[in-house]
Amino acid sequence: MKPTTAQAQQQRLNNRVAVLKALAHPTRLWLVEQLEQQERCVCELTDGVDADISTVSKHLSLLRQAGIVTSRREGKQIYYRLETPCLLGMLTCIETALETKTPGCCGN
Amino acid sequence: MKPTTAQAQQQRLNNRVAVLKALAHPTRLWLVEQLEQQERCVCELTDGVDADISTVSKHLSLLRQAGIVTSRREGKQIYYRLETPCLLGMLTCIETALETKTPGCCGN
DNA sequence: AGAACATTTGGCTATTATGCCAAATGAAGG
DNA sequence: CCTTCATTTGGCATAATAGCCAAATGTTCT
């Protein structure tokens, strides 16, 4: 058992914050939801968003850096895939938590 | 069953984003963790943070607006309480999700 | 090689978030 | 009522984020 140093604590906080920050944007959250069922190429994703392609690309890039999605090239297109589908269940949990204020919701 | 309009979708996204944004800051996340076991007054919380009291106060105020904590006055002090303890389990889940990439983690 | 397509990157501006200080508020006690 | 203690609020300077356009990259097809 490591002695949990202040630095390690800080590191742990920052890791979590990185993921939260990545998800904390309407467009990015929408993108993640689109990837829940299947992988998609950038052009498909862009169609559903009211923003420049370059903007969407940057959002996806940010999600990739956060480890939430991965990408793979297939011909001219690049496909994005959700690495951790369970994150979305977590978001439903957030809503339930706030609405019901039930301490034991979300299965823990 | 309501027909899920584009506006409603947007609203749902924004609600979730509001919570994520509130949690997406190292100090605020730390504050929330401190409140996991018991309520605390501002002075207790301030002791553990390297930041001005006024800064901590603003963070707490932001968390309150997001519906994550509530506050109550007792004499000179104001006590903050975590409204939804299960949110923290969710955060552990984030870590597990990213480390293990297990689709079915987090119990969903 | 050159054109066409899909996506990313650079750069710039506008908006938003952060954090400190100082001043204001509110409660308790002399 | 005046002081002290705990906390919040206002204001401001600085940093981080978002989004658009234009240019660059990488791929396929001819």
From TrEMBL, chains A, B:
Residues 8-102 form the HTH arsR-type domain. Gene3D superfamilies: Winged helix-like DNA-binding domain superfamily/Winged helix DNA-binding domain (1.10.10.10). The keyword DNA-binding applies. Keywords: Arsenical resistance, DNA-binding, Transcription, Transcription regulation. The keyword DNA-binding applies. SMART domains: HTH_ARSR. GO terms for molecular function: DNA binding; DNA-binding transcription factor activity. Coiled coil: none annotated. InterPro entries: ArsR-like_HTH, HTH_ArsR_DNA-bd_dom, HTH_MetalResp_TranReg, WH-like_DNA-bd_sf, WH_DNA-bd_sf. This is Metalloregulator ArsR/SmtB family transcription factor. It comes from Shewanella insulae. The lineage of its organism: Bacteria, Pseudomonadati, Pseudomonadota, Gammaproteobacteria, Alteromonadales.
